[in-house]
């Protein structure tokens, strides 16, 4: 193993420790440092891109996550983890149809056990889309739907966040409505 490969492995291990500890910014820095030491065609680079995608999901950076996943899928179209993360990132950016398209691609490529996370995500997206489309039912179920969405997806789409805030307001969840509004205002001022 060359010196650069050893350094990359050390950065990857440090990134894994940071990720496990919930220190996502530090994990991302370590994964990026490791990636910078490897050749683009190194098989370990795909693993690191997938790790970066996972960290970006945790940091609620849907666009960055999607970019990492696309790089992985360009080299390895059947990568189930990258496909599931890309679908989550697309949904988080307010593109559920694109998320479904991502999930439907290469269905023959994974065994049933590997497809389980994709199928579970598809079911959650379908349920969320159906509830949100039904208006009245969405208001009745809104509190539960948004709680699940907050846990399972991220929101990097201002229009989706604004809709979520309006629903919280109608449901009488004032603290959540204020939280969403403050997040949008902070996000707007940083852009």
TrEMBL record:
Q: Which InterPro entries match?
A: TPR-like_helical_dom_sf (IPR011990), TPR_rpt (IPR019734)
Please name the Gene3D superfamilies in this protein's record: Tetratricopeptide repeat domain
What GO molecular function annotations does the UniProt record carry, in alphabetical order? Hsp90 protein binding
**Repeats (TPR): which ranges?**
8-41
Alphabetical UniProt keywords:
Repeat, TPR repeat
Where on the tree of life does the source sit, at the highest rank?
Answer: Eukaryota
| Name of the featured protein | Uncharacterized protein
């Amino acid at each position: 193993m060359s010196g650069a490969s050893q350094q990359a492995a050390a950065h990857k291990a440090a990134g894994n420790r940071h990720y496990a500890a919930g220190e996502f910014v530090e994990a991302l820095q370590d994964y990026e440092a490791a990636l910078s030491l490897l050749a683009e065609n190194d098989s370990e680079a795909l693993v690191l891109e997938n790790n970066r995608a996972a960290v970006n999901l945790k940091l609620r950076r849907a666009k960055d996550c999607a970019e990492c996943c696309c790089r992985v899928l360009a080299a390895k179209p059947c990568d189930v983890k990258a496909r599931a993360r890309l679908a989550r990132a697309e949904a988080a950016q307010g593109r559920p149809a694109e998320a479904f398209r991502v999930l439907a691609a290469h269905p023959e490529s994974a065994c049933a056990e590997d497809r389980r996370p994709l199928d579970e995500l598809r079911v959650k997206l379908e349920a969320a889309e159906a509830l949100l489309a039904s208006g009245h039912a969405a208001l009745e179920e809104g509190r539960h739907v948004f709680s699940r969405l907050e846990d399972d997806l991220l929101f990097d789409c201002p229009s989706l966040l604004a809709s979520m805030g309006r629903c919280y307001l109608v449901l009488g969840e004032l603290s959540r409505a204020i939280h969403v509004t403050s997040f949008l205002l902070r996000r707007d001022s940083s852009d």
